[in-house]
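PROTEIN DATA CARD
Card holder: DUF7836 domain-containing protein
Chain length: 59
Origin: Salinirubrum litoreum
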Amino acid sequence: MVEAYVRLLCPECGKEWETGPTDLPGHRENFSCSGCHATRRLAEFMRTEHDLQTLRQFE
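Structure generated from the sequence above:
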């Protein structure tokens, strides 16, 4: 079985990381960067449209 993951990119500090979509809130919920603590909707942290679609499949 292949595990799904999404890639995130902080729009404020540029920090990049990966995590499982089940470890995240809904794409419209607020999310904070662990590096700079910037808070925005989670969808704004998705690196690509594909990452956003992957996250939506697990909501």
